[in-house]
Amino acid sequence: MSYPDYGAQGYTSILVTLDGAVAVVTINRAKERNTFSGSFIPEIIAVFDLLDRDDRVRVVVFTAESTAPAYCSGADLTGGWSIITGGNLEGPQAYRDAGGQVSLAIFRCRKITIAAVNGHAVGVGITGLQLPFDFRFVWAGAKLAFPFVRRGISAEAASSWLLPRLLGHSKATALLLTGGTFNPDSPYLQGLYHQILPTREEVFPAAFAFAKDLAENTSQTSVAWTKALLWHPADSIEEQHIIDSRGNRELAGAADGAEGAKAFKEKRPVKFTDTLSENLSNYVPWWKEIDVRYRKAKL
Amino acid sequence: MSYPDYGAQGYTSILVTLDGAVAVVTINRAKERNTFSGSFIPEIIAVFDLLDRDDRVRVVVFTAESTAPAYCSGADLTGGWSIITGGNLEGPQAYRDAGGQVSLAIFRCRKITIAAVNGHAVGVGITGLQLPFDFRFVWAGAKLAFPFVRRGISAEAASSWLLPRLLGHSKATALLLTGGTFNPDSPYLQGLYHQILPTREEVFPAAFAFAKDLAENTSQTSVAWTKALLWHPADSIEEQHIIDSRGNRELAGAADGAEGAKAFKEKRPVKFTDTLSENLSNYVPWWKEIDVRYRKAKL
Amino acid sequence: MSYPDYGAQGYTSILVTLDGAVAVVTINRAKERNTFSGSFIPEIIAVFDLLDRDDRVRVVVFTAESTAPAYCSGADLTGGWSIITGGNLEGPQAYRDAGGQVSLAIFRCRKITIAAVNGHAVGVGITGLQLPFDFRFVWAGAKLAFPFVRRGISAEAASSWLLPRLLGHSKATALLLTGGTFNPDSPYLQGLYHQILPTREEVFPAAFAFAKDLAENTSQTSVAWTKALLWHPADSIEEQHIIDSRGNRELAGAADGAEGAKAFKEKRPVKFTDTLSENLSNYVPWWKEIDVRYRKAKL
Fold it and tell me: What's the pTM value of the predicted model, to 2 decimals?
């Protein structure tokens, strides 16, 4: 496998660096208040697709500059909802929400993903750029705004699917139907954040240290299986038992399984070598992968 | 559209008033200890059906008199379980739980619904008259009793479906399998109540002020879409993305979407005008609507 | 019905006693550090199958000796992952995880089940031996380790199915993707434990007193219906309403329903007599029961 050169991708809205097996994606739009528009959107989608397939990467940290006006201030409303209403489409069925496209790209990444939310977040800044991640670290002072019902639109970025699963319907309703702005210690957000840090400056280092530990000590194939089992569960516990049995038989019999047990016996750190491109079972995915692209009716 | 005159409906167990876009339904059975029986049941079902379709209404607050013996003391057991066992039915398949009928009527209401629980609640008083609402405000001293397994029956009013979704299975099990009585600050209820008030008298005013704000500042169509997305989710995140994309394209292109963005730019309160009867997309509902009525086998 | 004699089953890894309607299963492998291997596995499966069908039993408490090195220290890794990789199977599809088999046996038990976790728990000790129970009591000092991704395997014992349902995906991800070790008061475990006790010695007595109350005051058929409704819900609230209506019509019309209402009116303790073998509706189960056994391809 030849590895992507992230510096050669021509990104203008994000910066991407690799530190060992940890990839760091930093929003590079402080002077546009980290709004969600322009090249930002295709670049996030593209980079998460690359990071998913890059065997060097075990953990992805997504963050902003801690001095930016916001982590992400949502869509730019100076032109109204043109981000949603723009384009000459065949009809409403042809539209695909940009926030949802970003959510899907992050959600589908088979590596551990962490959002380091070191500033305020509005709209898609709290939905698409936080909910599809595995972990969220946040600044205690962050204002987190879910303004949709107060702005005449609805929950986007698949947040209406993710929030009830992450927190349950009672909290999801409180967040989405009030259209309110909350701090991370709000009871309606309880359980969403892995860690809450007192200052903006502390958020990324805490997330990065956490990422480093996971990158050094977790198996890439184990992580991919675990994420798949969590997010693509069977309808019944019996079927899940059949699937996770197969996963563990394959994993335990592979190099990473042997190394995990051996390192434990020898009381030393693990050194995992299996990769997704070489060692992930063909059994994954076991679910329907749905193509969300719209196919034009008119030629 | 001609609007219903709630005073002319002949309700005897409830009082219904409209204050701007907030409808208030008050249980009017204090001398029967607000038991769940008689005309109370069909009246709740009827009024929620009307409120759902009445374009004037944006938020519904359901409450009791704060001086009543209870918010709702559940079924009247002086005649045993006659509320369940009564009637000459074709068989057990022909019975439809009254609590569940009430739950469905509230659950199907496309407006924001709030229960202001200003007294004790037993059985259906904590299930059907609380769980299907979007928000619950409660008195800190309320005794909340789930006595089913200690009374020889089972969870009713679809509570076994709603509780795990609202709070997760661990808490739902604790509530339903113990048959216990809890206070609102019980860890097993954590997350269920939007606000807990120290006195019975404070519950309704707090819920009403909350309702007023939502009635003035939220879009009726945005709310209906959000509730539909939350409670009728697709099986996969991809399908949800396709549905919420369509919703936002339609909403952002309508009057409320334009107004939401314009008011934001002009830093002024919104004035939403879209209504469910005129402006809700034909795409809603996208799910199977199941007719729960029993059809007699015998002619 | 003739009742099983638990003392005559030849169990060597567990002790089983009956105290009224409460069955107590105690792990009897302290000198093997309560590892999950050998006869322990088939004995747990067998005893939960018996307890499910034994009409005398209303509540099952599962525990360890409070002086054992651990509640359950997980798989024995001295031979690597041989518990997973062992056996001459037709292929990975033929393997059935032992932890999952135990999870299913406990999950399928129609009585109230309680885990009294009076020591540390690792791997299957926190998954299969805790998550499928209805209630969990735990020692505040217990170390609870989810080491899978750090040992090259994946979540087992259907934990990837149970944890998101019990606690939501945000907490489930925190537990399974970190591979971490937690104390019961961890925010990531919030809601999992019914009660947290300061000392190891207090865990079983607290669980047993709780069990005694439930055994004396709950209906066996009500409990079985409630568990079935919680864990085998319909796809829609309407279908759940149809199912729970039927349940309550059958239960309220049976001896336990009559007794529950009568005892309430007479302000005296209940005395329930209905049993699963004689009085549970033929309507249960209403879901597909999946046979997870592997059928050999080769003769």
Answer: 0.97
